[in-house]
């Protein structure tokens, strides 16, 4: 009986460690996602400003051979 309890406690300890590790990963990824969202918003704002200023991007222009 004691062996079963020890085995269960050992499994619980491993599970707790796994949950803590996963929690750290999720927290780090949440930070990265927030940073990426800020960057995308900044890029969208820049593009909106360019469109408002009437600046055409080279990629949006037709090539000269057309």
TrEMBL record:
<feature type="coiled-coil region">
    <location>
        <begin position="5"/>
        <end position="53"/>
    </location>
</feature>
<dbReference type="InterPro" id="IPR007236">
    <property type="entry name" value="SlyX"/>
</dbReference>
<dbReference type="Pfam" id="PF04102">
    <property type="entry name" value="SlyX"/>
</dbReference>
<keyword id="KW-0175">Coiled coil</keyword>
<protein>
    <submittedName>
        <fullName>SlyX protein</fullName>
    </submittedName>
</protein>
């Amino acid at each position: 009986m004691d062996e079963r309890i020890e085995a269960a406690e050992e499994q619980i300890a491993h599970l707790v460690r796994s949950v803590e590790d996963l929690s750290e990963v999720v927290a780090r990824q949440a930070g990265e996602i927030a940073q990426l969202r800020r960057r995308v918003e900044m890029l969208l704002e820049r593009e909106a400003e360019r469109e408002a200023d009437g600046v055409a991007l080279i990629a949006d222009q037709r090539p000269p051979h057309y």
